[in-house]
Write a structure and sequence with these properties.
Layout (H helix, E strand, L loop, with lengths): L16 H28 L7 H6 L18 H14 L1 H21 L2 H12 L5 E4 L15 E5 L2 E12 L6 E8 L2 E8 L5 E5 L11 E12 L3 E2 L6 H35 L1 E2 L2 E2 L4 H29 L5 H25 L11 H11 L6 H13 L5
Parallel strand pairs: 1-4
Antiparallel strand pairs: 2-3, 3-7, 4-5, 5-8, 6-7, 9-10
Length: 387
């Protein structure tokens, strides 16, 4: 019996029945609803907002949160599989779900009041309210602790001034989780669309994540009620805790992109004839294909163990860094190699490889560049900081 070329070590057999059901459900959605439109969305630089109600109906927004707040109560591996299947469709769609779930719903659940949870989380789980996460600033990049956005307490209000850059979902968001310096340290605030002095500017001319909505946030003396402060955390551990949640999903997502590219190029190489034989019958092609399968297999096993560690409460941030670094690098290399095997046809969005390759340029950069995660592991190995 031949092995599944995209699951050589039968990782699927290590999943629970519930986890397999979640994966199958999201896979059907991607096959039936995402793949038929996502190429055009990428070409048109359009986020497929019409899919949001269906994503919500599948329980993919806040999937790991308790049902009392609209979540699905799923385990970590199930959430990882959601990210994997969504990114098999497109990184932009997975980014939307990651931001909504890990960067917006998670901090409200983990750091917010019960009133904040009840006000926002059920509506966000239903896709009726969209969130964005305001941490990155134009000058800061990999050094978020240098943020210049500042919040000053004025009675029962906070005055917020500053800006944020490269914010996924910003143009379509109803609320923003914004992190700002205060006299007590970094704190988080829930800003609502329509607050005076709060404006959003969409970022265009992107060659990556074109099917995602990206913008900049500007705050000019925005008056934020004390009731909108995330009072449960002070300091950089707040936003970094959110990023760790999101990076977990990002560690799974690129596996889906790599699988999409491998499946496509396997079909192409089996049909494309050169010099009287299929491309798949050449040694050079088989060596490349075998290497892709090897790297995907390693990433699948790494991600699964990462999920089991998270479920056991033993997950460390350094392990997430290693997984994000390894799996993003794996996927972007495979996407580029698949584009090469597709020849000239590979440069068009009629095929998925170039779209995934371009998207992964963002995925390997955001929420910690490859270099940052390498240095995290270097510090863990040596005990010395080289940032």
């Amino acid at each position: 019996m031949r092995l599944d070329p995209c699951d050589l070590f039968d990782v699927r057999s290590l999943l629970s029945d519930e986890e397999r059901a979640v994966q199958d459900s999201v896979a059907r959605f991607v096959d039936q609803r995402v793949l038929p439109v996502i190429g055009d969305c990428f070409d048109q630089a359009r986020f497929p907002a019409e899919l949001v109600p269906e994503i919500a109906a599948l329980g993919l927004l806040g999937a790991t949160l308790p049902p009392a707040y609209g979540g699905g109560g799923m385990d970590a591996v199930a959430y990882g599989l959601i990210c994997q299947e969504l990114e098999r469709g497109d990184s932009g769609l997975r980014s939307f779900v990651s931001v909504q779930s890990s960067l917006c719903m998670h901090p409200i659940f983990a750091y917010g009041s019960e009133a904040q949870r009840l006000r926002w989380l059920p509506a966000m789980a239903r896709g009726e309210r969209i969130g964005c996460f305001g941490l990155t600033e134009a000058h800061g990049g990999s050094d978020p602790s240098s943020m210049k956005t500042r919040a000053v307490r004025e009675g029962d209000q906070w005055r917020l001034d500053g800006s944020k850059m490269w914010i996924t979902n910003a143009p379509i968001a109803d609320l923003a989780i914004v992190w700002a310096q205060t006299e007590d340290g970094v704190q988080g605030f829930i800003l609502e669309r329509g607050m005076a002095g709060f404006s959003v500017q969409e970022i265009g001319r992107k060659m990556s994540l074109r099917a995602s909505s990206t913008g900049a946030l500007f705050f000019d003396q925005v008056q934020v009620p004390e009731a909108n402060r995330l009072a449960g955390v002070v300091g950089m551990k707040g936003p970094l805790g959110c990023l760790n949640q999101a990076r977990f999903g990002i560690s799974w997502g690129p596996i889906g992109a790599a699988i999409a590219c491998l499946r496509e190029v396997l079909a192409y190489a089996g049909q494309r004839e050169l010099f009287g034989r299929p491309l798949a019958a050449t040694q050079s092609a088989q060596i490349k294909l075998a290497d892709m399968a090897r790297r995907i297999t390693g990433a699948q096993l790494l991600a699964l163990q990462l999920g089991r560690l998270k479920e056991a409460g033993r997950l460390q941030p350094q392990q997430v860094s290693l997984a994000k670094w390894n799996n993003c690098r794996m996927a972007i290399d495979i996407a580029r190699e698949c584009r090469d095997l597709l020849g000239a046809a590979g440069i068009t969005t009629e095929h998925a490889a170039i779209r995934h390759a371009l998207n992964l340029e963002s995925v390997i950069t955001y929420e910690g560049t490859e270099t940052v995660h390498q240095l995290v592991i270097g510090r863990e190995l040596t005990g010395l900081t080289a940032f």
